[in-house]
């Protein structure tokens, strides 16, 4: 398996968090989710969780899965969003660096095999999760627009996607 694929290919790719089969995760022994915030749970410029996101959190918790929000964004943004969901969070996580993933795993007291990482970016969320050996699920960004740094990452991400498609690694439906 190529090194680029190893680090940048998500284990799964879905349209949104709502397409993730929570039952299946729980049945396969998943006990914790490390999720990104911006453009994964809501648009990067939306302050609060939507009703659908609140219900998703309830559903995940009812399935016996703990959630930690791990975001590269600042304390104010991540803190106020997470508090309204009563969920643990790590801000300024510096993904794809591994420290925040380790921190979150310790916080949840879980083994790597019990954790799934969810995010909308290949270069931060997927790369960060894959290099720790965690199962990664990539979602289509909630909003098409991004902040400045993300724009650059998206350019690289598009090239990686192209490469994976050409090599026949990508098996998911695209639209
Ligand atoms: Mg994001």
Plain-language structure description:
Keywords: Hydrolase, Magnesium. InterPro entries: HAD-like_hydrolase, HAD-like_sf, HAD-SF_hydro_IIIA, HAD_sf, PGP_Pase, PGPP1/Gep4. It comes from Staphylococcus edaphicus. It holds the Pfam family PGP_phosphatase. The protein is 41% helix and 14% strand. The longest helix has 19 residues, at 148-166. The radius of gyration is 15 Å and the shape is globular. By secondary structure, it is an alpha/beta fold. It has one domain (3-166): 3-Layer(aba) Sandwich (Rossmann fold), CATH 3.40.50. Strands 1-6-5-2-3-4 form a 6-stranded parallel sheet, with helices on both faces. It binds magnesium ion. Magnesium ion is lined by residues 36, 38-40, 119-121.
Question: Brief description of this entry?
Answer:
Pfam families: PGP_phosphatase. This protein is α/β, with parallel strands linked by helices and 175 residues long. It has 7 helices and 6 strands, in the order H-E-H-E-H-E-H-E-H-E-H-E-H.
